[in-house]
Amino acid sequence: MRLSARHILSVNDLTKKDVTLILQTAASFREISERPIKKVPTLRGRTVINCFFEDSTRTRLSFELAEKRLSADSTNISKSGSAMAKKGETLLDTVRNLEAMRPDILVIRHNQAGAAAQVARETSAHVINAGDGMHEHPTQALLDLMTINEAKGRTKGLKVGIVGDILHSRVARSDMLLFRKMGMEVTIGGPPTLIPMCLAETFDVKVCHDIREALPKLDVLMLLRVQRERQGEQLFPSSREYARYFGIQSRDLESAKDDLVVMHPGPVNRGVEISAELADGPRSIILNQVTNGVAVRMAILYLLLGEGLKQ
Ligand code: CP
Q1: How close is the Cα of 255 to the center of ligand 1, in Å?
Q2: If you average pLDDT over each of 190-204, 220-234, 237-251, which comes out highest?
Q3: Mean pLDDT of all residues belonging to the chain
Q4: Which atom of ligand 1 sits closest to the CA of residue 130?
Q5: 11-137+290-306 matches 138-286 in fold
Q6: Buried b vs exposed e over 160-189: b needs ≥16 C-beta within 10 Å?
Q7: Which of 38, 120, 150, 201 has the smallest C-beta neighbourhood within 10 Å, fewest atoms?
Q8: 17 is catalytic
Q9: Which residue's CA lies nearest to atom 6 of ligand 1?
Q10: pTM of the prediction?
């Protein structure tokens, strides 16, 4: 079976059937990472170039491991050390040169919204958006969905709260699109300056600036980092103020359901949006998200290259 889309640039490229297929395939691949020899020959002879023009720990490493565990030939390019850094080569010229080396898949992270779509117009390879500016991060949303499904045994009808810097968060955008597509209810919280005005209508979500009011009904709480690097101006007084009014710690969850789970896409700023004891505590499934990131990316690479579920 193949995915209906040639590229994964946005959650909107995926049908519900695609999402289900990716999650099923990821579940079947998850076990490979638990083996002593973590490698299958599935993508032998296929070439993947990971183009990380913006910093990353989880996404870059999990794509690299996914490619290696499926035996693809993978290589990496980053901004520093490439001809883009000091010689003035443009993104499009860089991509045209990569294209000339005949990759099968290009994985793109870039600080400009729309960069992955721009690359997709210039290449015959499949393109996966690994995060483009403030736009989207679709593979993160898929691994978040897989982690929720694993923790709760279902996704439809679940109530999810997403709290933090929604304005600058590509994870929030992709999560809202995917969670709504899969029949979940989404409530957004955080400082009014970090929540766009038209969000509720655009994404069909609820807005509750103080998430503590919505907490008793939530099944999942997703906390997001404040993205200082994307803020042109000061949108709240200080990290201390943010932690006081919007940061969540274990004692804030006294009114929550016993089985509420806490998630975070990383990197975590302990003591700002989430306390250390909550991040490391029994409700936290943050590291499960990281583990599932490898499986989801293995599934996407495999399904884009059209080999179906048989191994
Ligand atoms: N979740 C996420 O995108 O993390 P990285 O920036 O480390 O890839």
Answers
A1: 30
A2: 190-204
A3: 94
A4: 3
A5: yes
A6: bbbbbbbbbbbbbbbbbbbbbbbebbbbbb
A7: 201
A8: no
A9: 56
A10: 0.95
